[in-house]
Amino acid sequence: MTKKMLWVLYAWLIAAQGSALESRSSESALLMPLPQQTQSALWSAQILTRYHYRAAPLDDVMSERIFANYVESLDRDKLFFLQSDIDRFASARTLLDDAILKQDLSIPFAMFNLQRQRLAERVAHARELVNQTPVFTLKESYSHSRDKASWAKSEDEMRDLWRKRVKSDWLRLKLAGKDEAAIRATLDKRYESYQTRSARLKSEDVFQIFMNAYSTAMDPHTQYLGPRAAEDFDISMRLSLVGIGAVLQERDEYTTIRELVPGGPAALSGKLKVGDRIIGVGQGVHAPITDVLGWRLDDVVGLIRGKPDTTVVLSVLTANAGPDGKPTLISLGRRKINVEAQAARKSVIEARDGTTTRRIGVISLPVFYEDFAARRKGDPNYRSATRDVSRLLAQLKKEKVEGVLIDLRNNGGGSLGEAVDLTGLFIDQGPVVQQRNAQGEVRIERDQQSGLAWAGPLAVLINRGSASASEIFAAAIQDYGRGLVIGEASYGKGTVQTVVDLNEVAREDKAQLGELKMTIAQFFRVSGGTTQLRGVSPDIAFPSTTDPERFGESSARNALPSTQIKAADFVPAGQVTTLVPALRARHEARAARDPAFRYLVEDVAEANFQRKKNEVSLNETERRAEREKQEAKQKLRAGNDQSAKRKALRRDDGLLANERALSADLAEEKEQKKARDVLLTESANILSDEISLLKADTRLASQVLPAGSPMATQRR
After folding, report:
1. How far apart are CA 53 and CA 32, in angstroms?
2. Residue 213 CB neighbours (<10 A)
3. Which of 368, 372, 527, 591 could lock 414 by a disulfide, CB 3.0 to 4.6 Å apart?
4. 3-state secondary structure at position 50
5. pTM for this one?
6. Catalytic residue numbers, as ranges
7. What count of Cα atoms within 13 Å lies in the side-chain half-sphere of residue 248?
8. Do 427 and 480 meet the contact criterion of CB atoms below 8 Å apart?
């Protein structure tokens, strides 16, 4: 059968399906594409097929990618469509390219309309189940993440799936202490809201979903921005959005924190971290909490946003909390984010090395910022990350620190120029990063300034949230052998994007066509490797607190591959990697003795186990036993901490301390432990170990440190 015949047949199927859906659905009318949307889709295709960094034709191969992305967007957890529904749309796998090129978007809209009908049917069934009290003595389980599951093959299978889902939701609330009436009210309202929000969707929402199925088929950072989404993007780029300062994403029906915006209320509070899940939102300290489990992301964001200087209360499940984790209420003040709040800051950690105490300077850099407006105006005192770090380094020198640790955890990037200039504070001129465009042309960004602001021992702390400019800096420090890289493998974003205004390209004044954020280039290390996909691998690795299968470039479908180009002409500044085996051995021995670090390793292992297990028991006895096990573990940890404190007091005083003083000390230590950053402290200890090794061997120091370092002898 030719494509033309398929198209005619498909048009007939769509019309038949539309009549069937219309006869069954009284709550929401069928959504249809608008003329400007078909125009916008065509212009987007013309740009992506010509100017994208990995330009690909819009053909049957691309159509199949679009289809896979679109179906996933409509029903990621396979809770609505049946296998027969997917089979019904099978021919569309190779027709979506024609839908765009022929400016006929009836197929993707028909797919969406069917999804909305299926959602209404599932919600109606769920609300019926809420009126029945589940039996929790059976031995059965529910998979809470179903993105890799198979489609239900029949209505009976789908209804049983929803029976287990409702039962799981009910049991969570029961274990949280809610009575039967409260559980029924909460769940009925939750499921009703699914239907309400679906009914509110408009044609522009459907088009946005479909076009992003196309754009992300090119690569995960290419994105279509409809008129409303483009406005939100512009607001976020101006950092004038009033909210909590967090980038959110949908994961398994949870609104999950993907990134904390440096200087925002969420980051400054210290109470939220990447991977935490928002399950409720309240408008003010005394306002009721609205359950947002299963809500659309933009609806949750709408609740969190608000007027400046007002309070929003979040009900949060921590990233490592199990299925029955106790939610925490966190109050945050809404406000605008400014450059000052994002500025680099310093601190000093005193690391113990036997009887010796070493002062380690820490510079925390939330983002690679630069006040472009002030610089354009010629302001000699304009703010930038490099200028601020240079000033802080001078202050740390006066404070007699022996090493400097640059903390780039959760630094999502920023100005490329600042990444280059900041690297220049620690190397004496040379290439920092290479950039290749779609035509294959390579441009090298260099540090042009001679001299070093800091020539002593250096380390860079990164995690999975360190991306883009952070990866450029960390990779350059590593390639030059200038300092240790410690932590987790970084995000893996090694690409460059630009924003194209479709109205300007089409010279269209009346219709709003939206914008296209498109990948146009790729970064490469001076060694010729790339941070793309693989990220920066640390010299000394810490336990990964995030799930690499769900967060990071490698978790994204259609990510650009990791490739290699010719190395730039550069001279290494040192050979710090020669110390890594000895430093790793010291770190592992110390970590094994540190209870806080052992707890971290245990928690990471437990979180990984739960993720791989990917199911929860629906048996109340089993769930309560698991919960009691977790509570017992926490009590044991607390008891061990108190026991260690008592032993320390007995050792120091030579007698049993007064119980009142002991209780006060324990309470104080508990608060200090909350504030203690285990990974930052251990990073400072590792840097202290390096200093010890270098001080014991000046010849070794001359190999590891750059020329001109006070600790290094004259190189021969």
Report:
1. 32
2. 22
3. 368
4. helix
5. 0.82
6. 468, 479, 493
7. 26
8. yes
